[in-house]
Design a protein that fits this description.
The chain has 388 residues and is α/β, with parallel strands linked by helices. The protein folds into 2 domains: 65 residues, no CATH class; 289 residues, TIM Barrel (Alpha-Beta Barrel), CATH 3.20.20.100. Helices cover 35% and strands 16% of the residues. It contains 14 helices and 15 strands. The strands form 4 sheets. Strands 6-7-8-11-12-13-14-15 form an 8-stranded parallel beta barrel. The longest helix has 15 residues. The protein is globular and about 50 Å long.
């Protein structure tokens, strides 16, 4: 299939229409290779066209479009939701490369409270997953400790016999041992990054979720008693075994990262840290800069600041987000997520909610366009003062 790709140094389709472009023609593999090259040098928007043969389109779509964000040219929803001519088109979510064999949807669905929902039925969990997939959200964040070590089993029940496993990527974490669930005999809460514990944790997660591999395994918290050579070699061995496709960390500072990486052959591919409009310290204390220099994407947990973004104490910030959001026909939540997505360090926000209605709107952040002044307007409001 011959495909034409026009690329522009712009960040929005609206602007790209008026620009001048160049073209790529050739096989799907050639187009994909060149697209990756252009993205690395900062080109963000592309227009793709090709011969509309069904088989060719399907092949091209499964190989190339999963790496792209497709912006609909249909109108945004009207104020009258009953007007069927106004509808929001599903977006093709941006894909972020974590390593040469692993890429994730830029927005991730977090399953921290999955087992705490009043409805944990197989059907309801599958409906949540399907609502994510409808928006191009294919990556799901778990941890062995979530739900008192029960959330992975809830996900596993929903995956069994559904055919959903092949459509999603699963992230899970280990190393926290808390005196609940299967560790109820522990005297205290502690961290364990020993080889024995990591292997046992991975095997347990695989059994609970009924899967044969984990797409990404994270060390959940820095372990002050970590033997970096033992932990590093264990992570390498897990990748060699095929039980995990990639490894990373969570809540690590740069010195923790460098210590563990020094004991490994494989590269750590992400760090999951707290990032939000309110938890913005990492943008200036060197944490984000460290990973941006390494071209390591960051995952952002609690991107809505655990709901604090909507509290009375942050009324002015919330009002600003709502005002800017109204101008683009999205809510304050979408603006807060878009603020993270706008950063050049490739941030993957993890959005956790048990509300099916809210899940269905998570991708709206991808429709938001923030210029530099608006980004700083939000940042200034969060700081409570003008930047220095």
């Amino acid at each position: 299939m011959n495909s034409l790709v026009k690329y522009y140094r712009y960040t929005a389709v609206e602007r790209a229409r008026s620009g001048c472009g160049s073209g790529i023609q050739g096989s799907t593999q050639k187009v994909l290779s060149e697209l990756k090259t252009y993205k690395k040098i900062g080109l963000r928007s592309f227009i793709l066209s090709g011969h509309p043969h069904l088989d060719g389109c399907k092949h091209f779509g499964t190989r190339v479009l999963m790496h792209m964000k497709a912006c609909s040219l249909r109108p945004r929803p009207a104020k009258n939701p009953n007007d069927a001519t106004w509808c929001r088109s599903p977006l093709m979510m941006d894909r972020i490369d974590l390593n040469t064999n692993l890429n994730f949807s830029q927005i991730i669905y977090g399953m921290w409270r999955l087992s705490e929902d009043v409805n944990t039925s197989v059907e309801h969990v599958r409906n949540k997953i399907s609502a994510c997939l409808d928006q191009g959200i294919t990556t799901f964040d778990q941890a062995d400790i979530y739900g008192g070590y029960e959330a992975e089993a809830v996900l596993g029940s929903a995956l069994k016999g559904s055919g959903l496993r092949d459509k999603i990527e699963i992230v899970t974490k280990c190393d926290i041992v808390a005196p609940v669930g299967r560790y109820s005999d522990a005297r205290i809460k502690y961290y364990d990054t020993s080889r024995e514990h990591l292997f046992a944790s991975v095997d347990h997660s695989l059994r609970l979720m009924g899967i044969d591999h984990i797409d990404l395994l994270l060390i959940h918290r820095p372990d002050p008693l970590m033997d970096h050579n033992e932990t590093g070699s264990a992570l390498d061995a897990l990748m060699q075994s095929g039980k995990v496709r990639g490894v990373g960390v969570s809540n690590f500072k740069p010195h923790d990262w460098e210590l563990l990486q020094s004991g490994m052959k494989n590269k750590l591919c992400t760090n999951q840290i707290e990032l939000s409009v309110l938890a913005h310290e990492s943008f200036t204390n060197g944490d984000v800069a460290f990973h941006q220099r390494l071209a390591t994407p960051l995952m952002a947990w609690s991107p809505l600041a655990g709901g604090e973004l909507f509290s009375e104490a942050n009324r002015n910030l919330h009002s600003l987000l709502s005002k800017i959001g109204a101008e683009q026909n999205v809510d304050a939540t979408a603006l807060a997520i878009a603020w993270l997505l706008a950063h050049p360090s490739q941030i993957l926000p993890i959005m956790g909610t048990n509300s099916l209605a809210r899940i269905k709107t998570m991708s709206q952040a991808c429709e938001v366009i923030l210029d530099r002044q608006t980004w700083f307007e939000i940042y200034t409001s969060a700081l409570g003062q003008e930047v220095a």
